[in-house]
Amino acid sequence: MTTRSGKAVPPALWQALDEVTFGRDRILNLRESLPSAADARARAEVWLRARQVSGGGEVLVITGRGNQSIHGIGVIRQEILALLPSLRRLGVVASWREHTAGSFVVIMAPVSALLEAPRRRRPEPVTNSPTTVPASLAALDASTLRMLEALAIQNLELLGVAVDRSFVPQEMERTFSILAASLSKGPDREAMLREAIMKALDESG
User: Fold this and answer.
1) Residue 145: C-alpha distances to residues 66, 87, 115, 140, 151 (Å)
2) What total number of domains does the chain contain?
């Protein structure tokens, strides 16, 4: 890019401005590591899912223009452009726009959108029964289970029908699997899960 005087703006200056605007942890620079198209797509999906859970808002994905690619076509740029619509259908991103010829601003969808896409078939109510913790979730802390149960009940109520607790265990497992897919592995993963659950409760409440 150039200034009004026709002088080119140093790339380092644009990088500094982007870091001020977005924050260093909200910028994914795929141009620096030069991954393959498949690696770039996989890395971008994991990163965007994590950003949705950790903060939402706007993030910056730098793909590069592809000047060094065959025929000057940015392979990584095209791969990310193909990825974004699928992530929108999945409720991960809300929209995106071109920031420069080699980068995109991506607006994350709220965490609650993950739980609404695709929309679920409405369950049929049956007799009331206490909630049973699914065996697959037994390792979670009691406080996490309570929050997950509350979110599962809220999800079912948002379907607009009277449901009872017999549906809750299955909804807890479904909700957990969706949120867990967005979390990075590590010792604080369950704390991140609770944060994501709380965010979804606040957004849908």
Assistant:
1) 47, 28, 17, 6, 10
2) 2
List the structure tokens of 16: 């500094």
1 in any annotated domain:
no
pLDDT in tens, 69-104: 554 557 888 899 889 998 998 889 999 999 888 899
Of 88, 109, 130, the residue that ends a domain is: 109
Percent of all residues in the chain with a pLDDT value above 90, rounded to a whole number: 22
State pTM to two decimals.
0.63
Beta strands in 38-78, from DSSP E residues, in sequence order:
58-62
Domain annotation covers residue 70? yes
Least confident of 47-61, 119-133, 153-167, 180-194: 119-133
Mean pLDDT across 172-201: 87
- CATH assignment of the domain containing 67: 3.30.1370.110
Apex 47 CA angle, 107 and 168, nearest 5? 85
Q: Do 182 and 196 fall into the same domain?
A: yes
- Of the candidates 70, 86, 75, the one whose C-alpha atom is nearest the C-alpha of residue 30 is 75
- Measuring CA to CA, which residue among 174, 189, 160 is closest to residue 115? 174
